[in-house]
Amino acid sequence: MGIVSPGFQGKPRSAAVTLPPGQYLTEDFPVLSAGPTPRIQLDQWEFVITTEAGVKHRWSWAELLELPSETPTVDLHCVTKWSKLGTTWRGVALDSLFEQVDTAADFALAHSYGGYTTNLPLEDLLDGQAWLVYEYEGEELGAEHGGPVRLLVPHLYLWKSAKWVNGIQLLVQDEPGFWESAGYHDYGDPWREQRYQGD
């Protein structure tokens, strides 16, 4: 006697998965970077939010870990057309960092060790939409995936989730980052397939 009721065949996985247009599902975690992988010592790491008025708010590694952490489980969508579903992270919601920040800015430019930048509307970093993450699937975040800390903005293409992030510059006017200056879309919504300027 089987443990499955007669006639029950389950739901094929492909039928249950909805991906953004042009994406394919992957089980692995491809590593793509714009340059060499920085190796940052934790006692040297810091994160700085700089307001449009030049006021700086700083956190050390130890101070970041003192903030309340969350464990979001999210889907990832890369502009190179792969999607990875149900990834689990641990980190600090950007809402926690912005509690003490007084700003009238509408835009943000994320900065990373190694010189990478990417632009985002500030509203896309708040209201539970973005995190500074330092663990992936219960393990310390490896350098190849952006450790010790990366930005995680899962509702946008993955290039917006800057690896090795070390700061956010708040801006009154939008300013393109690394890939945006090279022709990638300023916003990058995978559900609208905003890969390149004009999409």
From TrEMBL:
> Which Pfam families does the entry link to?
Oxidored_molyb (PF00174)
InterPro entries, per database record: OxRdtase_Mopterin-bd_dom, OxRdtase_Mopterin-bd_sf
Question: What sequence ranges are listed for the domain Oxidoreductase molybdopterin-binding?
Answer: 35-179
PANTHER family associated with the record: OXIDOREDUCTASE MOLYBDOPTERIN-BINDING DOMAIN-CONTAINING PROTEIN (PTHR43032:SF4), PROTEIN-METHIONINE-SULFOXIDE REDUCTASE (PTHR43032)
Stated name of the protein: Molybdopterin-binding protein
Q: What is the lineage of its organism?
A: Bacteria, Bacillati, Actinomycetota, Actinomycetes, Micromonosporales
